[in-house]
Write a structure and sequence with these properties.
The protein has 390 residues and is α+β, with helices and mostly antiparallel strands. The chain has a domain of 187 residues: Jelly Rolls (Sandwich). It is built from 7 helices and 27 strands. The protein has a 19-stranded mixed β-sheet that branches. The chain has a 3-stranded mixed β-sheet with strand order 1-25-23. Helix 1 packs across helix 3. The longest helix has 19 residues.
Length: 390
């Protein structure tokens, strides 16, 4: 080991001792945290170090994160005692350097140059969608200024400043017969959108989702069709039930709040009720849901799960990820929101469960650093590819 390496190692151990004794300055804390982040990404760099000091420092860092998390307005899932569980937190809650995109490069640390290098990164999803009018015209909603977009058969379609699409009746259409016309909203990967339908029902669309609906709800039913994931707040109308068609499944309501997840890359459709009641049908099978219940269809029967964590289910609609699942399940959601491809160079252990709450407004590096904090997995960002390694 060179003199420079020996000097740096002694300096680092001195910093660890001060940190563990609560005597480190803010600048010293930042230095050791930046070094620690680099250490978790470079296996073997700690060879020759006193691992007891490193382990004690690691535990102190985790305690600092826990304490800072408890002060946040958005709480984070508890740390589980079982070794198979890992917990990560909101990037904004971290006092550590994981909220930044800077790290010490290994070679420069050994040479004591301490130059900061910027990581590649991917920005989060945004409000974007394509509106397909009844005549086939496609409108990119992201690029439009807010205001009126179109006027169809007495219905005004407008975009609001905060990324909503609103349908408003501007003419008396009560006794008029209209040719059925349908609009579709398609949300791509890395997008989300909200629409207020002609009956004043509200729909939130997650990434890689779509909804098709009529300009006028006529007859005895209000029928829409979806794919992907959508959250509904249905305007009550006892004379005209609201029906959501999704594959072979139909969800029928009068007025209520519920979420449907029906991505084509998943075998099951999950319908979760938050408020009111809904009837879920698939073929001849029918089940009634009460709040807090989730129906799964797609296996030939309707399976009901009671007391689901509805906060988990609608976290995406409220602007954050809330996880209590294995890595592959998490990365499926991450890939949709950030519009990235996930490549596994090692098969993640499906029994390791990560639990926590993370803002969807953060760049992907912040989320990945938090997941990788314990060192079980590492991530490399190459353009829009996320490579997962041990």
């Amino acid at each position: 080991m060179s003199k420079n390496e020996n000097a740096f190692n002694k300096h680092l151990l001195d910093l660890m001792a001060k940190f563990n004794n609560g005597q480190a300055t803010a600048a010293e804390i930042q230095e050791i945290e930046l070094w620690y982040e680099n250490q978790t990404s470079n296996a073997g760099y700690t060879d020759g170090f006193m691992m007891d000091e490193l382990q004690e420092t690691k535990q102190k860092m985790l305690l600092r994160i826990e304490e800072s998390i408890q002060k946040e307005t958005v709480p984070v899932g508890k740390l589980y005692p079982s070794k198979k569980f890992k917990t990560f937190a909101i990037a904004a809650a971290l006092v550590l350097a994981f909220g930044t995109t800077l790290y010490f490069s290994l070679n420069e640390l050994k040479a004591e140059k301490k130059e900061l290098v910027k990581l590649s990164d991917v920005a989060p999803g945004v409000n974007k969608a394509i509106l397909i009018l009844a005549n086939g015209k496609k409108i990119s909603l992201e690029s439009l200024n807010y205001g009126e977009i179109a006027n169809q058969n007495g219905i005004k379609i407008s975009k609001t400043a905060n990324g909503q699409l609103i349908y408003e009746t501007i003419a008396n259409t009560e006794n008029k017969a209209f040719k059925p016309e349908f609009n579709t909203i398609e949300v791509p990967l890395g997008g989300q959108w909200q629409v207020i339908l002609p009956d004043h029902s509200k729909v939130w669309l997650n990434a890689q989702s779509r909804i098709t609906y009529p300009l006028h709800f006529a007859g005895g039913e209000r029928n829409v069709e979806i794919g992907g994931e959508a959250y509904f707040e249905v305007a009550h109308n006892a004379k005209m039930p609201f029906k959501v068609h999704c594959g072979k499944q139909i969800v029928e309501v009068l007025g209520t709040h519920f979420n449907i997840m029906a991505y084509t890359d998943q075998n099951l459709i999950k319908t979760t009720l938050l408020q009111g009641s809904v009837k879920v049908s698939e073929g001849k099978n029918t089940k009634l849901l009460t709040p807090g219940e989730q129906a799964e269809t797609g296996s030939g029967e309707i399976k009901i799960t009671a007391n689901v964590d509805v906060e988990d289910v609608v976290a995406w609609k409220n602007g954050y990820f809330k996880f209590d699942e294995n890595l592959e399940s998490i990365m499926t959601k991450v890939a949709r929101w950030y519009d990235v491809e996930v490549v596994y160079q090692c098969k993640p252990d499906p029994n390791i469960v990560y639990a926590g709450k993370v803002s969807r407004s953060k760049n992907i590096s912040s989320l990945l650093k938090i997941i990788a904090f314990d060192g079980d997995v590492h991530f490399k960002i190459e353009g829009r590819r996320i490579i997962v390694t041990k």
